[in-house]
Amino acid sequence: MGDNKEDIIKLNDRKDTQIKEQPLNTEVSKLDPLEVNEIERKEKKINEIESDEYEKQLKEEEEFRKKRKCDTVLSEAVNSTEYNQPEYIEVTVSSPELVVDSTGKYTVYTVTTRSSHQEYAPGNYSVKRRYSQFQSLRSQLKTIQKQSPQANDWGKIPKLPGDTFKSYYIPGYRFKPEFTEQRAKDLTRFINNLLKHPSYLFNEVTINFLTKPDFEIIKPKTQIVWGNGDESSSSSE
Prior knowledge:
Layout: H1 5-21, H2 33-78, E1 89-101, E2 104-115, E3 124-130, H3 131-147, H4 165-169, H5 177-194, H6 198-201, H7 204-211
Antiparallel strand pairs: 1-2, 2-3
């Protein structure tokens, strides 16, 4: 027999008929035990199904009420002057390009900035930067940090990616795509780590670096060898 409501109704009708046909002093236990068990089993299953459906319905109604409440709260928040969208800044360094001009050969990267901070309004910028300009940014911030009375509150400036063994010793290697593309990723990591600290994020030097077409290069006094980007790289790209 199939486990559906029609079968159970038929079995229940048959059980009721059998009970009516029995003398008044006949006990229900005298009915076919297998048939009674089958009816009870099916009834139990139907009850479980109906119970599950009911629980599901209650859950859907509860979720609907929660959603409606959230929509109401959000609507009130949007219309309220107290509501503030979380501020953010995202910077990507990409698209390394080889440039050859009267000054020599070097690589430029596209630095794209998206931000909701008022200091970065209107919020979308794309500028070209050489590696030496990243060096200058770090050098200028470090000088400002040392001169600040709250220098200890500024946090440590992250290191720049330095030259690799190949780029330092193999002529022309630093212009190969495998090197410049990896450097773009490393510079993206550098600038986003730098911006995690408000003192650097809202500093005028940083804002100019990310938003102005031109950024003055102030070369650091210290030159270092490959493998360490603490002060500057030996590369002057």
